[in-house]
Specification:
The chain has 266 residues and is α/β, with parallel strands linked by helices. The protein has six helices and 13 strands. It binds S-adenosylmethionine.
């Protein structure tokens, strides 16, 4: 974990050294993002999209260079920039390596009476090389129970033309719409750092796209959510941020996460 601009830090890393890169850059909110204690990072872009995309381009190029052949990039954005950045990222990663547009849906926060409440972020998922990428199906929630039959052992199934369709005991496979609550104002995860993401979001990403022991990197690490979850799940981790506050919060947070003593596989 170090203090520094993502570009400088990325340039100092070896080719193909990262198994997963999660990037959660400023969202072009055109505001200074602050805690009650004061300014933390400046998200104003007087040059608009041109300036924002010029900032992201070299960092995405570096992300591609740093990814292992089986690696993946999750690029976290929202409605303001995602459509512009998608075109840029396709150019850099190749549209054939684009795997998913993940909608992270949440319900908390304000509402407007002038447009539909904006209650999702978008994560663009790219493989360095589609087909060679690590991908472990995640399961969450429960199946519809209407019309289910039960076999002699009590296992639920559905009758189809091909025979019995049994349901996976761990629930349905996750789709590209993720219902994960935003951190509540009183969540014990909260560090006070602006734009902090929930650990459950990073847990799904890390479990899907890495194996234990692999290297997870986050070059806009903020409060250190990615690194803390990676440590808890027994992955190696590396990150940086340009803000002193971020580095302080992340270091403190990492100290409180016990090292994982899990076996070699999840
Ligand atoms: C959206 S926040 C990341 C929040 C983080 N995912 C979390 O859960 O706490 C974006 C971060 O990018 C950092 N940042 C902005 N410009 C940067 C740059 N050029 N290099 C590295 N970090 C930068 C900001 O300081 C801020 O912490």
């Amino acid at each position: 974990m170090c203090l520094g601009d993502a570009l400088t830090v990325m340039r100092s890393q070896d080719d193909t050294s990262c198994d997963l890169i999660y990037l959660d850059p400023p969202f072009m909110t055109q505001r200074v993002q602050a805690t009650q204690a004061g300014a933390v990072f400046d998200d104003r872009w007087p040059g608009g999209f041109r300036e924002y995309l010029a900032f992201l381009r070299p960092r995405l190029e570096q992300a591609r260079r740093l990814l292992a052949q089986s690696g993946s990039l999750y690029l976290h954005l929202d409605w303001r920039t995602v459509h512009y950045v998608k075109c840029l990222a396709d150019e850099i990663f190749g549209i054939e390596n684009f795997l998913n547009e993940i909608v992270w849906s949440y319900r908390t926060g304000g509402r407007s009476d002038r447009w539909f409440a904006r209650k999702h972020d978008t994560l663009l998922l790219y493989a360095k090389q589609a087909g060679r990428h690590v991908f472990h199906v995640q399961r969450n929630g429960s199946f519809r129970t209407d019309g289910l039959l039960y076999d002699d052992t009590g296992r639920p199934y559905k009758k189809t033309r091909k025979g019995r369709l049994y349901f996976h005991p761990d629930g349905p496979a996750c789709t590209d719409v993720w219902e994960i609550p935003f951190l509540s104002t009183v969540s014990c995860e909260r560090t006070g750092y602006p734009a902090q993401k929930p650990e459950a979001l990073l847990e799904r990403i890390i479990r899907t796209s890495t194996d234990p022991g692999q290297l997870v990197a986050d070059f806009f690490c903020g409060s250190g959510t990615t690194l803390a979850v990676a440590k808890r799940l027994g992955r190696r981790y590396f990150g940086c941020d340009v803000s002193h506050e971020a580095v302080t919060v992340t270091r403190q947070r990492l100290r409180s996460v016990p090292a994982c003593k899990r076996p070699a596989a999840d």
